């Protein structure tokens, strides 16, 4: 609402974001506003009457939202208005014909299916008049009633067939999920997240937003991933993630509870996935707490050497399951710290399968993906170098991402750090310093607190700094082997998991 205090604001462009709610009535107080672009958001409700005070407005774009109601008549009286775009909303009723509406080339109302009237250039249907003659109406009704009856019967048959088919599909999906599935609707998710409020927003991704929610009936805390259907590829990402997770189970994979594919109250497509809520937040928030959300967990953002090693083993185990133990191998394609979630016990769960791919054949070799051969295959710094040259996805790509993740966990440096330029990257940075300078490249936290934190729970035996450095050398060696530039030279993920288990055993004696 504070936007109204900007009396001298001339241009406001907040287009193509994820903004929602009603348009603030205080906009009318922006007396100097000439250009107002709010298109491509999720605004709803009526256009506030206060906007009639925008006497100097020249360019107004409210397209691609969920605004509704009649188009206000006061737009006709805004003499400076040169361009008005109200397309693709939910407006209804008659379109004004005065002022800016006289010129069809500067006014757009396309995509509002319940509008009528306006100038001829808009090609809208004529608004129905209430002054129709009784005889004319009678003749029309004699023609319409049989047609309506026929279409009604046909429509009922189609609806019945649709629901029978839908019920059959849903029963099949329920059998796939098992008895633990939660059945939810759009209205249920809306209530659980308090209207998808910003207070419950816990993450933003390439294809949507993640909200914390509480399902009222069972008081179950969940994470709701809502896909931004305006984003190109969001629908495919929804299907990929759902298909990848619905039939697999592993303690180190995030657990999907159900999927919601419906329409919202404005008639727009709505797709969401519902997951178990992870109290510990993401690994990225622990590795780089200064840039994360400090309120995700009450625990301090501090990971000991053993905790980091346990998380690395969890991630390696999850990849080993996806690559070697599923009936059809699955490639994650976007492994990075923000896609590794931690529960209360700091057990790691690999998440976000929006870019996941099924390999056409059960092999670790580079494989053609039948569903998609072009597109993003990971995030900058974590994506395998061969992907940048057009190679198809393979399990080797995930191994590369895991190697970079492992090096980041124990050096504290992101692969996108400013220090990595002119041919220097995280892989080379670590490789050229082993084994002599392990203490210099290691996360200072690991070495400084290693002796205090790395203890066997039963015997309370402390670990010497020398033993810690030996273990770090081996861990860095695995990270380097996994992130080799050539895919054929990379370590197999099952071998990496086995070696990390061995290192942990040796560390704790």
UniProtKB/TrEMBL annotation:
Group of enzyme by EC: transferase
GO MF annotation list: ATP binding; protein serine/threonine kinase activity
Annotated organism of origin: Rosa chinensis (China rose)
Gene3D superfamilies: Phosphorylase Kinase, domain 1 (3.30.200.20), Ribonuclease Inhibitor (3.80.10.10), Transferase(Phosphotransferase) domain 1 (1.10.510.10)
PROSITE patterns: PROTEIN_KINASE_ATP, PROTEIN_KINASE_DOM, PROTEIN_KINASE_ST
Transmembrane segments: 143-165
Membrane topology: Single-pass membrane protein
InterPro entries: Kinase-like_dom_sf, Leu-rich_rpt, LRR_dom_sf, Plant_receptor-like_S/T_kinase, Prot_kinase_dom, Protein_kinase_ATP_BS, Ser-Thr/Tyr_kinase_cat_dom, Ser/Thr_kinase_AS
Binding site for ATP: 225
The protein's name in its UniProt record: non-specific serine/threonine protein kinase
Domain Protein kinase: 196-509
GO cellular component: plasma membrane
Keywords attached to this entry: ATP-binding, Cell membrane, Glycoprotein, Kinase, Leucine-rich repeat, Membrane, Nucleotide-binding, Phosphoprotein, Receptor, Repeat, Serine/threonine-protein kinase, Signal, Transferase, Transmembrane, Transmembrane helix
Subcellular location: Cell membrane
Domain of life, per lineage: Eukaryota
Family: Belongs to the RLP family.
Residue stretches in coiled coil: none
Catalytic activity: L-threonyl-[protein] + ATP = O-phospho-L-threonyl-[protein] + ADP + H(+); L-seryl-[protein] + ATP = O-phospho-L-seryl-[protein] + ADP + H(+)
